[in-house]
Structures are given as structure tokens and as C-alpha cells.
């Protein structure tokens, strides 16, 4: 379907891409494996970095995010929902890496870490969100492989079926759409999707 995108709505995404490019250059200077696409199980994803860690290796994912998002990540009442997408993504990277021949062996307990760069760190807005730092580095919870694989294979199958039949795929869950907020504020094809509600 045709859709339009306002450039001003994509500013943070553009800056995020630029930030990743700078970090990738730094990784290459250190001879670290960065920005490598992983494939398997009919899905793919691009991990940001693999580095030595405690006798093994770890996957590091960079996120350039707002202080409000960081607040939700570390608030016990919102943390589980706020971490969900990041945790699922990194666990799938872990699974794909472990299934890739000759991939460096990942740490058994903490194979995936998230490096958060707070785009409004140090500002009044960040302080109002009680975020008094500009970056954070945290291991991501390991999830059971079966749970992660089922989630992504279901998404993959739904998308393939929809594309073959030229129909809109099933609507995401309330959890995935942040109770509809993600659809309203961040989706470029919401008008088409809403036609099928």
C-alpha cells in the first residue's frame, strides 16, 4: 500500500542510524565484529557488536533512547513491559548466533547486553524523569529458547501468509503496541491498518 512519511517524524531514527555508524567505526578500529547480519529459521537480524567478555563473548546492542523510556526500564512497575521488545530481540540474536557455525562462543550466563545512550541525557527533561546519567550498560535477561522461537516464528508465518494473500496481517497485541500508543504515534501505515479494525 502507498503511504507517506514525514521527515521530521524520522529525525530520531536518522540520528540513531548515524550514531550506530560512528560506533561501528570505533569497533572496526578495535578489530571487533560489528554490524553483522544473522540469518536462520526464516528470520534475520543485525547484531551491533560482539566483544570478548569473561573468557567468552557477549553480544552488545546499542539503543539511543529517551530519558522517559529509560525511566520506564528501571521503574519496577513498568520494567517488564518496557524491556520486552529489547529482551526478545537480543534473545533471538543469541539463538541465531549460537546456531551460526564458527560464531564466537557466548557467555553462558550473560550473553547479551544493552548499551543505552540517552539522547536527552543531562537536560532538564531527563532530570524530571529522574534519569541523572547519560548512558547505561546492562545485561538482558535470558529467556527460554522455545518461547523466543515460537514468538518470532509466529510473527514470520503471519507476515508470509498475509503477503501471499495480499491482506493485512493480524493486529499486534496490546502489549506489543503499547496499548495502541505505538500505532497512533509511530506507525506510517496506521491508516491502512485502521481500515481493517
Chain-wise SSE layout:
Blueprint: H1 11-29, E1 33-40, E2 43-53, E3 56-65, H2 67-74, H3 79-98, E4 112-118, H4 124-128, E5 135-139, H5 145-165, H6 181-186, H7 190-194
Parallel strand pairs: 3-4
Antiparallel strand pairs: 1-2, 2-3, 4-5
Percent helix, as a range, is: 40-55%
| Subunit arrangement of the protein | single chain
Shape: globular
**Number of distinct beta strands:** 5
Describe this structure in words.
The structure is a single chain. By secondary structure, this protein is of the alpha+beta class. It is 43% helix and 21% strand. The chain has 7 helices and 5 strands, in the order αβββααβαβααα. A 5-stranded mixed sheet has the order 1-2-3-4-5, sandwiched between helices. A hairpin with a 2-residue loop joins β1 (33-40) and β2 (43-53).
List keywords for this structure.
197 residues, five-stranded mixed beta sheet, 7 helices, 43% helix
Give the structure's gist in a few sentences.
This protein is α+β, with helices and mostly antiparallel strands.
